[in-house]
Design brief:
The chain is an alpha/beta fold. 39% of the residues lie in helices and 17% in strands. Helix 2 packs parallel to helix 3, helix 3 crosses helix 5 and helix 6 crosses helix 7. The termini are close together.
Length: 269
């Protein structure tokens, strides 16, 4: 199993440029597999813009994968978003993975003055438009004329709930599925990845897995949500359970950005 890291920007710690850049470099230095960035607007805390942060990560690292998990595409116009994605890909090169979805938090849409009920339609129409623009085609009278190094755009990973309608679409038409563990039980994730594989899906990623290796250890079952708020031995067992379910990657949300904590997370493997 690969482990990607989402460096949380919530809480009192805030974000200082030097510390955040150091943490991104440390993720690579300790041997973790990737840096991933979330998308949230107007939830009572400031979140880094996922594409800006991914571009920065691409600029300060050399080898690890860089991804979004996920960008809520319907919050943006597809032409503007297509241009931003290509810019991010230029900084990251072929390491960039565009995780994208319809979004599931109504408040984000209210903050932007958008209709939450139309998000699936917007995603269904917007993704093909972006892909056409990345190929250098004209869409809505616009041609972005992509630079050769980014022409075609990045691999697309579809974010969807484990029981969502987009799992077959992700399997049959895109490059992977991202399933959130935040509000989903381990059993539901297991069912979701099995369904994804039945449709021929390849890469499966479990995200929103919060980490606190100093927390009290308890056992979890299929009816529980999965996190790594437990001791290291139990955390390693939980990651192994995700791998046994069929997930290729786990994206861990990390509050403590210290290198020693990142090394402890790497040691789980």
């Amino acid at each position: 199993m690969r482990i990607g890291i989402a460096l949380s920007t919530r809480g009192d710690a805030g974000v200082a440029r030097a510390d955040f850049v150091r943490a991104m470099r440390d993720v690579e230095a300790v041997g973790l597999d990737g840096l991933w960035f979330f998308d949230a607007i107007g939830r009572g805390y400031l979140n880094t813009d996922p594409l800006a942060a991914a571009a920065a990560a691409g600029a300060v690292t050399e080898r690890i994968e860089i991804g979004t998990c996920i960008v809520q595409a319907p919050l943006r116009h597809p032409i503007e978003l297509a241009q931003r994605v290509l810019t991010t890909q230029m900084f990251c090169g072929d390491r960039f993975r565009f995780g994208v979805g319809a979004g599931s938090t109504e408040g984000d849409f209210a903050a932007m003055g958008l209709d939450f009920s139309q998000r699936f339609k917007a995603l269904r129409e917007g993704l093909p438009m972006m892909q056409a623009l990345w190929r250098g085609e004209t869409a809505n009278g616009v041609n972005l004329t992509p630079w050769p190094v980014v022409k075609g755009g990045p691999p697309i990973l579809i974010g969807s709930w484990a029981g969502g309608r987009w799992i077959p679409i992700a399997a049959e038409h895109y490059d992977g599925w991202i399933g959130s563990a935040m509000y989903t039980t381990l059993g539901a994730l297991k069912d979701g990845v099995a369904r994804y594989r039945r449709h021929g899906g390849k890469r499966a990623i479990a995200t929103n897995i919060h980490v606190d290796l100093g927390a009290a250890t308890t056992e979890i079952g299929d009816d529980d949500k999965i996190d790594l708020r437990c001791g290291p031995e139990e955390a390693a067992r939980r990651l192994a359970r995700l791998a046994e379910c069929g997930f290729d990657d786990a994206i861990l949300v990390v509050q403590n950005h210290d290198r020693a904590n990142l090394e402890a997370i790497r040691a789980l493997l």
